[in-house]
Design a protein that fits this description.
alpha/beta; Molybdenum Cofactor Biosythetic Enzyme, Chain A; Molybdopterin biosynthesis moea protein, domain 2; Molybdopterin biosynthesis moeA protein, domain 3; 7-stranded mixed sheet; 6-stranded mixed sheet; about 30% strand
């Protein structure tokens, strides 16, 4: 009996393995999962910082009622320790340390140059304006990037700013990919008559590479023959994760479940109430690894990599956030769900009347990889919902890449 999609996700994620630690240089850390908290090595900013180009003054409230003598200049990376008297100021640049006794910065746009090195200010001021206090952004030892963060370039900037040149990250799992099916031919092989080319394995290989997984081995295509399948499966069981495509349904040539059992794989679940991709197989290997068997239909493979496999792999690396995040958007037209299960449909996000909306891409079932290639992601029709009207809001998952657009 098929289990609900949410139950399947929970059961699969519960099997994620705990990661070990490794250390990388900062330049190699993007795309990794942080193993230890990164804290501020000092207050941020570490001094009173000028937030504008202008003039630093000691506030009196009379700045626009007298002229000031310029007695120095402070650039970023410089200090100034001169003596200051009444109606004296220093020229200061954005990012520079505001020296004592000055406590206020007047933007250069609110000034007028006078003769003899004097300057006049033409607008009223408030004490402390345009001066960022020391520690305004963060205090020393404050956690800036917590353990379990999937590191993006914006995080790398923070790590660099606190001097984190060597970064503790989680080890990545080793993954094997095996395609099955006597009808499959590789892209470099001729495919005529009843044969089709193997797109699933090459999708998975590229998706894993894009997601930053490096220890990936492609085991090739196994025909629907028990002895060959078992040999390939045994090879794949030496990895942390073995991902198979095809052969997991109920046809006469769907031999994967029985071959996995013969190799000592313990079934966790088989069949999930979802469209596309109901006949999903998940099992535990004798060595503590996991096997995931996906249907042979390309759209099912593409969807379940994003909704199941990548979340599992990210969690196994210790990531605190691993599930795809939906965006609630209105549908451009009505959408239907004929079956008694949750449905994910390929779609694009387009703009109409100043509002983003989800446009379902017509597709002819889970084998229609052409439709999937035109999509930005998928939207969800929950279990029990047969129709969503135009304008109805749906969960859209932009799981297939960046939401970019043209200039048109």
């Amino acid at each position: 009996m098929a289990v609900a999609f949410e139950e399947a996700v929970a059961a699969i994620l519960a099997l994620a393995r705990s990661p070990k630690e490794r250390v990388l240089l900062l330049s190699d850390a993007a795309g990794e999962v942080l193993y230890r908290d990164v804290v501020a090595d000092r207050n941020i900013p570490p001094f009173r910082r000028a937030a504008m180009d202008g003039f630093a003054v000691q506030w009196t409230g009379r700045e626009n009622k007298q002229t000031y003598r310029i007695i120095g200049t402070v650039n970023p990376g410089q200090t100034w320790a001169g003596a200051s008297g009444e109606a004296e100021c220093v020229k200061i640049m954005t990012g520079a340390s505001v020296p004592a006794p000055f406590d206020t910065v007047i933007p250069v746009e609110q000034s007028e140059a006078c003769l003899d090195g004097l300057v006049r200010f033409v607008a009223p001021t408030s004490r402390g304006q345009h001066v960022a206090p020391e520690g305004e952004d963060a205090r020393k030892d404050e956690v800036l990037v917590p353990r379990g963060t999937l590191l993006h370039p914006r995080h790398i900037a923070t790590l660099a700013a606190v001097g984190k040149w060597e970064v503790s990250v989680s080890e990545k799992p080793a993954i094997a990919i095996l395609a099955t099916g006597g009808e499959l031919r590789e892209p470099w092989e001729e495919a005529t008559g009843p044969f089709i080319r193997n797109c699933n394995a090459h999708f998975l290989l590229s998706a894993l590479k894009t997601s930053g997984f490096e220890q990936v081995k492609y085991l090739g295509v196994a025909p629907d023959e028990s002895d060959v399948l078992k040999a390939k499966i045994r090879e794949g069981l030496s990895f942390d994760y073995l991902i198979l495509t095809g052969g997991v349904s109920a046809g006469e040539t769907d031999l994967v479940p029985e071959c996995l059992a013969a190799c000592g794989v313990e079934k966790v679940l088989h069949k999930v109430s979802v469209k596309p991709g109901k006949p999903i197989f998940v099992g535990k290997t004798p060595g503590g690894g996991l096997v995931i068997g996906l249907p042979g239909n390309p759209v099912a493979v593409i969807v379940h990599y994003s909704m199941l496999i990548r979340p599992l792999l990210l969690k196994s690396m210790g990531s605190k956030e691993y599930l795809p995040k939906p965006i609630w958007l209105p549908l451009a037209g009505e959408a239907h769900n004929k079956g008694e299960q949750k449905k994910f449909s390929p779609a694009r996000v387009e703009s109409a009347g100043g509002e983003s909306q989800v446009v379902e891409i017509p597709f002819h079932g889970s084998g229609d990889f052409v439709a999937a290639s035109r999509a930005d992601g998928v939207f969800e029709i929950p279990f029990g919902i047969r129709k969503v009207p135009a304008g109805g809001r749906v969960r859209f998952y932009p799981v297939w890449g960046e939401l970019l657009t043209s200039e048109d």
